[in-house]
Design a protein that fits this description.
Chain A: This is Palmitoyltransferase. Chain A: It catalyses: L-cysteinyl-[protein] + hexadecanoyl-CoA = S-hexadecanoyl-L-cysteinyl-[protein] + CoA. Chain A: Belongs to the DHHC palmitoyltransferase family. Chain A: It is a multi-pass membrane protein. The structure holds 2 protein chains of 2 kinds. Chain A is built from 13 helices and 10 strands. By secondary structure, chain A is mainly alpha-helical. The radius of gyration of chain A is 29 Å and the shape is elongated. The termini of chain A are far apart. In chain A, 42% of the residues lie in helices and 8% in strands. Among the domains of chain A are: 220 residues, no CATH class; 50 residues, no CATH class. The C terminus of chain A is likely disordered. In chain A, strand 9 and strand 10 form a beta hairpin. Chain B has a domain of 89 residues. Helix content of chain B is 42%, strand content 13%. Chain B contains 4 helices and 3 strands, in the order H-E-H-H-H-E-E. The longest helix of chain B has 21 residues. Chain B is elongated. The C terminus of chain B is likely disordered. The interface between A and B is large, with 82 and 66 residues.
Chain lengths: 473, 144
């Protein structure tokens, strides 16, 4: 019979399957990465993203070393004598203080200070459009700032060129960490991290407990040496018998001045609901004339201010360090014609964005004129920025890190293509659940995706232009 | 061939545009979003529904950041235990964030998805914006 039992292989099936096989192999090769691995700021992460530290960790080892050495000497050399002659509670109190100090220090150092994740490309483009189109007011404020009214006070919001967004009030961009930090206080080299909204209370408890600890050790060492020299020996003899005490005395003496001063200063800041940054810049004082506190954030009550700053609710981390980066997806076979495939660079932020087809993106670019394609090479500035006088808009900060000069340039990608993924869907769902732990991923997108019959087309955004040239020194 | 069929069957809608609802800082640094109805949604959504969604979100965030007896108690307890209590306990803020995630999921299912819209939880955008994705209306005719 001419009807063959063996059917010829459909050429279309042939053309599809190798590609899908290729796609699947590519998928296998790319293990899902967590967001901390592609975090754009200058931070270091430990324990798979659970702990965060600034890359400029400063003298944190020195701080820890000093505390541990001083306390070690205290427990080894002074405590035996003092327990014998005074009371057993001395090492107990010392031990409790030491534990509290170390825990506070580690908490301050390894907690996210309130880093704001950078704006996605879509958001940045939308903002640029708004800035362009808002020629509504007769008085045109300097570009890249926004004036708002908070508690009858005019507050200027500055545009952050690195993070591509208007900074919320009290937020500042730390040049050392290259992050915008909410309620930015200062970058503390002793602690190796920024001090901001989320870790200010830890920092405060660290310096207060450290003041107590140094004062306590200082007092105990003085008592020790006094008691020794009282027993018929001279001071020099007493010191010779316990040389470690002198070391402790010296360390504590010099620490006490600075630590007590710092504690007092921060107590004042807490009571008036100010940050070091605002105090140094004089944001609310000296400008308002007779008004005692022009601070719009103050509750004008010391106790309320203290409670709010130290005991208020602790917001979660916004950067979702342990979420998964949605893997880069090769476009599905049916739509390859209209897409272009970019080589896989290490992605930067903006990973949770919905992607669009290249055509749409190009159209938008032409309309908004806000972005340029950036090849992995010298970064290009955006056309909008070039014409703007940037001095007024910029606070005196060193220029942010380069965009394209980073690891081979950036490409924010996302995919929610249900075709290829159980796994990629799961990954994008994982990434939806930020700082807090959930037993199961948030199904908000799953269900909606299923309702709509799937998520958006997978495609690639153009590389984000660098921001080096944006800010003039 | 079977694969081609399934591709066509899926008919994934393309993203037409995105609308970003920015933060409203007039009351200070608390998390609050602007309730101004964006013009791009006029064809898809009722102004009232939109305002209700945003207002509920604002109220939920206000509840999360509320200063009161319970939050102070939580803070003091945390301070006394050298903040180690948060290793085993969820903060009040986190609890409310879960509530917000549930609310957004419900809103998407009931109101936004049938209109070809998608609300993104602001926490995924660092509490900067409420992102509303507008999908192409399939009835008009999709690109493919």
């Amino acid at each position: 019979m001419k009807n063959c039992e063996y059917q010829q292989i459909d050429p279309r099936a042939l053309s599809v399957s190798p590609l899908s096989a290729q796609i699947h192999t590519e998928k296998k090769e790319q293990r899902p990465r967590r967001k901390w691995e592609v975090f754009p700021g200058k931070n270091r992460f430990f324990c798979d993203g659970r702990l965060i530290l600034s890359r400029h960790s400063g003298v944190l080892p020195l701080t820890l070393g000093l505390i541990v050495v001083t306390c070690g000497l205290f427990f080894a050399f002074d405590c035996p004598f003092l327990v014998k002659h005074l009371t057993v509670f001395i090492p107990v109190i010392g031990g409790a203080l030491f534990v509290f100090v170390v825990i506070s220090l580690l908490r301050t150092s390894f907690t996210d200070p309130g880093i704001l994740p950078r704006a996605t490309l879509d958001e940045a483009a939308d903002l640029e459009r708004q800035i362009d189109s808002s020629g509504s007011s007769t008085y045109r404020p300097p570009p890249r700032t926004k004036e708002i009214l908070i508690n009858q006070q005019m507050v200027k919001l500055k545009y952050c060129f690195t993070c591509k967004m208007f900074r919320p009030p009290r937020t500042s961009h730390c040049s050392l960490c290259d992050n915008c930090v909410e309620r930015f206080d200062h970058h503390c080299p002793w602690v190796g991290n920024c001090v901001g909204k989320r870790n200010y209370r830890f920092f405060y408890s660290f310096i207060i407990s450290l003041s107590f600890l140094t004062s306590f050790i200082f007092g105990c060492v003085i008592a020790h040496i006094t008691l020794r020299s009282q027993a018929g020996k001279s001071l020099v003899q007493a010191i010779q018998e316990s040389p470690a005490s002198v070391v402790e005395l010296v360390i504590c003496f010099f620490s006490i001045w600075s630590i007590l001063g710092l504690s007092g200063f921060h107590t004042y800041l807490v009571a008036s609901n100010l940050t070091t940054n605002e105090d140094i810049k004089g944001s609310w004082s000296g400008k308002r004339g007779a008004e005692e506190s022009g601070n719009p954030y103050s509750y004008n009550n010391i106790i309320t201010n203290c409670c709010v700053t130290l005991c208020g609710p602790l917001p979660p981390s916004l950067i979702d360090r342990r979420g998964f980066v949605p893997p880069d997806e090769v476009v599905p076979a049916a739509s390859t014609a209209s897409q272009m495939e970019l080589p896989h660079f290490s992605t930067k932020n903006d990973v949770n964005m919905c992607t669009q087809s290249t055509k749409d993106v190009l159209e938008r670019m032409i309309n908004s004129g806000s972005q340029t394609l950036c090849s992995p090479g010298p970064p290009k500035t955006t056309p909008l920025v070039q014409g703007l006088p940037s001095t007024a808009a910029l606070s005196p900060e060193p220029p942010p890190s380069a965009g394209c000069s980073g690891p081979l340039g950036r490409r924010p990608t996302d995919s929610r293509c249900p075709l290829f993924s159980r796994s990629s869907e799961k990954e994008s769902l994982h990434s939806i659940n930020p700082a807090f732990r959930l037993a199961s991923p948030s199904p908000s997108v799953t269900r909606t995706a299923k309702t709509l019959g799937g998520a958006a087309d997978v495609s690639f955004m153009p590389l984000q232009p660098g921001s080096v040239g944006d800010e003039a020194p | 061939m079977a694969e081609t069929h399934s591709l066509q069957d899926f008919q994934r809608p393309a993203v037409s545009s995105k609308v970003f609802i920015q933060r409203d800082y007039s009351s200070g640094t608390i998390c609050k979003f602007q309730t101004k109805f964006p013009s791009e949604l006029e064809s898809r959504l009722d102004k009232q529904q939109f305002e209700e969604t945003i207002q509920t979100l604002n109220n939920l965030y206000a509840e999360a950041e509320k200063l009161g007896g319970s939050s102070y108690l939580e803070g003091c307890l945390a301070c006394l235990t050298a903040y180690t209590v948060f290793l085993c306990m969820e903060t009040h803020y986190e609890k409310v964030l879960k509530k917000i995630a549930r609310y957004i999921r419900d809103q998407n299912e009931k109101i936004y998805a049938p209109r070809g819209l998608l609300l993104t939880d602001p926490i995924e955008r660092g509490l900067r914006v409420v992102e509303i994705t507008i999908f192409e209306d399939r009835n008009i005719g999709s690109a493919r």
